[in-house]
Design brief:
Length: 385
């Protein structure tokens, strides 16, 4: 499937589906209006794009969704010419000098009571929050409810999700094929980034690397170094997270170890393979997020490992969406929910770890790994995944 054959703008049917689901969540919470926030902060622009089609290039933006009436896009005036506003499928657009003040005035002038906010935890700029809070408005944290409302992906969205996976896989292969001892970590990362940019990710990539000596991986995730040169005995795992032209994020990575891996890492790889098989069995529609977490993490239990991360999380047009696949999450998984599964598992002495990303689709009978690539170790001689 080539990029030219895919329409990455949502259809009218898809737009209506999104608004129907969000309005239903608003009604359940008794909201009069919902303010959806998006920010240039990597991976957190997606909620605005989901609700209005605009892809943030710089700064931040909002979509204001009243219980009745038409939604409005709110862009800061200094960003009037930043980004392609013609991609916005909402007709009402405003460009105030102070978005927070405009939002507060809108709520007061329309005599709206309960105000839901998506983005109050991480995304909304402080000055805009201060303007809303200073106006004495009844602000309701709507982060989790909004994510739950968009957790189930349509078949139209799944086309974009799968396309993003093909781009991510191509980047992983580019790193493997570019591998040579003596190159820097950043040079290898550059091979993936060249592939990503050429295939339409724009700035929507989040790159990191795990590395370690003698076929191992140390637990600390770091930026690829432009100074440190890789050795043939190093273990390397480039953690790659991208969204393609359609805006849907996915995560996929595999371990590169040209001289092989040590015994501790081999045990972790074997346990990770068990974990993936359990995800394929238990990540099914109707199960709770906590139930899935408990079942898929059994390979690591009682073996002396520390967990530096939950087993996974929902993922979509925002890089990390609720629910977490972990303890305390009773959310019932719907079919076509998409989850990134990647427990960060380390030895008790924190000298070995593994963090191998895979994106799954929740199915009726279990989880579908979207890469189609088994858990394995690469040595740098491969010509395909």
């Amino acid at each position: 499937m080539t990029e030219q054959k895919i329409n990455f703008q949502p259809s009218e049917t898809e737009i209506k589906r999104r608004y129907h689901n969000v309005h239903a969540a608003m009604d359940q919470a008794g909201l009069d209006v919902l303010i959806v926030s998006g920010s240039e902060y990597t991976g957190f622009e997606g909620a605005v794009r989901y609700m209005c089609g605009f892809h943030l290039l710089h700064r931040y933006a909002y979509v204001v969704i009243p219980r009745t009436g038409d939604p409005t896009c709110v862009f800061p005036r200094e960003a009037t010419w930043v980004g392609d506003h013609s991609a916005t499928f909402i007709e009402q657009r405003v460009f105030p000098p102070h978005c927070g003040q405009w939002l507060a005035d809108y709520v007061r002038e329309n005599k709206l009571g309960r105000v839901g906010v998506y983005g109050m935890n991480f995304i909304m700029p402080v000055r805009d929050y201060q303007a809303l809070a200073g106006a004495g408005l009844d602000l309701i944290d709507f982060d989790e409810a909004f994510d739950h409302a968009r957790a189930q992906k349509s078949e139209e969205e799944m086309i974009s999700v799968r396309h993003s996976m093909e781009i991510n896989k191509a980047g992983v292969l580019a790193v493997i094929q570019a591998y040579e001892p003596g190159k820097t970590e950043a040079e290898l990362m550059g091979a993936a980034e060249q592939t990503f940019a050429a295939r339409g990710t724009a700035r929507n990539t989040m790159d990191m690397v795990l590395t370690g000596p003698n076929g191992s991986l140390l637990p600390q995730m770091v930026f690829p170094s432009a100074v440190r040169k890789v050795k043939s005995t190093d273990g390397l795992l480039y953690g790659l997270e991208v969204s393609g032209p359609g805006g849907h994020w996915i995560e996929f990575s595999r371990l590169l170890a040209p001289s092989g891996i040590d015994d501790a890492t081999r045990r972790l790889v074997d346990l990770y393979a068990e974990f993936h098989e359990l995800v394929k069995t238990h990540l099914k529609a109707g199960a709770s997020a906590e139930e899935v977490h408990r079942k898929v993490m059994t390979p690591f239990e009682g073996k002396g490992y520390r967990l530096g991360h939950v087993s996974g999380h929902s993922i979509g047009m925002t890089m990390i969406e609720a629910p977490r696949i972990g303890e305390g999450s009773e959310f019932e998984l719907p079919e076509n929910m998409v989850c990134s599964m990647h427990p960060h598992v380390m030895t008790e002495d924190r000298k070995n770890c593994l963090y191998m990303q895979e994106t799954f689709r929740v199915g009726i009978d279990g989880g579908e790994p979207l890469s189609g690539i088994p858990v394995r170790v690469y040595d740098g001689t491969e010509t395909c995944l």
